[in-house]
Design goal:
The strands form two sheets. Strands 1, 2, 3, 4, 5, 6, 7 and 8 form an eight-stranded antiparallel β-sheet that branches. The relative contact order is 0.27. The chain has no helices and ten strands. The chain is mainly β. The chain has a single domain, classed as 60s Ribosomal Protein L30, Chain: A (2-Layer Sandwich). The chain is 0% helix and 69% strand. The radius of gyration is 16 Å and the shape is globular. It starts with a strand and ends in an 8-residue tail after the last strand.
């Protein structure tokens, strides 16, 4: 990982072989939004249905056309919640919740911290970790 930080902005370059979303757990911030582009392989996409993720795998390299999501705090540490749109050779697009992937060549990611905000993840009856945003200074959003 190569990165630079200025204030609450992290610019990260993930290198060939690093794992997403795991690599972003090292970017320390209690609340952030994430965006990026690059290339991935060994992708595992998820689609939430009936209390579980249905998994689809893409083994070959694909373009990371769009990466977006957030970083919050879960019961067991940082939670990196990412969705992707991927471009396959020939132009077909696939997308979904990113369960896991390996960087192929490079991935360029911006992690924008949200000062004064805490993104808390709590288990819900659906089985998902629900997002509970909180205003750190004001106590807003607590429930």
């Amino acid at each position: 990982m190569i990165f630079a930080k200025a204030g609450e902005v992290h610019v990260v370059r993930l290198q060939d072989g690093e794992e997403l979303p795991h690599a972003l757990c090292g970017v320390t911030t209690p609340a952030a939004v994430v965006c990026g582009v690059g290339m991935l392989r060994e992708v595992r996409l998820g689609y939430w249905e009936a209390g579980q993720y249905l998994e689809a795998r893409i083994g070959e390299p694909v373009e990371l056309l769009s990466l977006q999501g957030n970083v919050g705090e879960g019961p067991e540490g940082p939670v990196v919640h990412l969705h992707v749109v991927l471009g396959k050779k020939g132009g077909e697009a696939r997308g979904g919740h990113l369960l896991g992937a390996v960087v192929h060549n490079t991935a360029e990611v911006v992690v924008l911290g949200l000062p004064g905000i805490k993104l808390v993840r709590r288990p819900e009856p659906t089985g998902l970790l629900g997002l509970y945003p909180e205003g750190v200074d004001s106590g807003e959003g607590r429930g």
